[in-house]
Amino acid sequence: MRGWIIYTDGANLLKPERYEIERLVAVAKEENIELEVYAPDQFDLLVTREDEKSILIDGKPVPLPDFVMPRMGAGTTYFALAIIRHLERLGVYCVNGAHAIETVKDKLYAQQILAKQNLPTPTTMLVKFPVNIALVEQQIGFPVVVKTLSGSQGSGVFLSKTRNEFDDLMQLIEATSPQANIILQQFVKSSHGRDLRVLTIGGRAVACMERNSGGDNFKANVSAGGTGSLYAITPEIEWLATQTANALDLDVAGIDLLFDEQHFKICEANSSPGFEGLEQATAIDVAREIFHFIRIRLGIFDKPQSASKAETKKASAQAAQEALEEL
Questions:
Q1: Which residue in 127, 201, 238, 275 is deepest, having the highest Cβ count within 10 Å?
Q2: Exposure string (b/e) for 127-139, b if CB count within 10 Å is 16 or more?
């Protein structure tokens, strides 16, 4: 089985995903998978009927892989999306697909989809300048969470605790970037400084950890300094995570849940979830789980275990021959 990872260190990332890339490459080698890592700027696309020559890497046509893993998340550019769409058109399986990646990049659109599915989410509002602060206070209240429309690892997320603090932030944004796309979300007090990250693969919830800031920071992201610990997957957690992944058409996803008293609300979904903290907290081999799912999805089972069986058979034959020689 052959695969590509499309990845580049995003300037908007608090913590580059080198751990995830290195783990995927290492486990691929153990699983007898040929895996190459490419940056989007290495690609050129040709729209032609000669499909086998329509993808160029470093200016040269290359054989198509069996699967592609985009690892850019919210930092996925239009060009990167075009590459993924092109590969999908050529029949290459992409984990995740271009439509799903584009959907979760837009946090408002993703919330609209989840709300349509009657899933529990924080009340969300799109900012319109000048901001009607009285309306915000009436519909959402303070404190209020302020988010850029696209972001990851907790970047572009702020908490305005009071009306005056919110007013100052909105004036700053309007003065410096009046075309900025900003959404407001209900602040869930019982989830201050902590949340859940649930990893779903192929419609299954395979791992869950509680993230905790351990201080005054209301954001619990491990990439921002939070800590992770194993958390049991309850039926409610499993249902919310898998329903979210299915609604957003994500084969591999990181689903963030907020503690809402005795229940949970869906904060957001990630199409390229980091898993360093998750592997440390849960002792689950996330990279291997992803590759096992891809094998099942594609029906390609040339696992290294086959080679192991052959080696075992060869060793047994050799041992038998040595026993005969001793006799």
A1: 275
A2: beeebeeeebeee
CA distance 216 to 316: 62
Q: What are phi and psi of 51, to 5 degrees?
A: -55, -40
Mean pLDDT, range 77-81, rounded to an integer: 94
Q: Report the pLDDT value the prediction gives residue 24, as an integer from 0 to 100.
A: 96
* Residue 157, beta-bridge partner list: 147
pLDDT, the chain, mean: 87
Report the largest interatomic distance among the alpha carbons of the chain, rounded to a whole angstrom: 95
Tokens for 318, please give them.
Answer: 């050799």
Dihedral class, residue 183 (left if φ above 0, else alpha if ψ from -120 to 50, else beta): beta
C-alpha of 299 from chain center: 24
pLDDT tens per residue across span 148-163: 887 655 567 899 999 9
Distance CA 233, CA 195 (A): 13
Residue-wise pLDDT for 281-320, tens only, equals: 999 999 999 999 999 999 988 644 444 444 544 444 454 4
Which of 19-33, 44-58, 76-90 shows the lowest per-residue confidence on average (mean pLDDT)? 44-58
**CATH, domain range 191-297:** 3.30.470.20
Query: Which of the four CATH numbers 3.30.420.10, 3.40.50.20, 3.30.2270.10, 3.90.45.10 does domain 2-104 have?
Result: 3.40.50.20
User: Is the Cα torsion angle 34, 38, 42, 47 positive or negative in sign?
Assistant: positive
Q: Are 3 and 65 in contact (CB under 8 A)?
A: yes
Q: Mean per-residue pLDDT for 199-216?
A: 92
- Contact 289/253 with Cβ under 8 angstroms? no
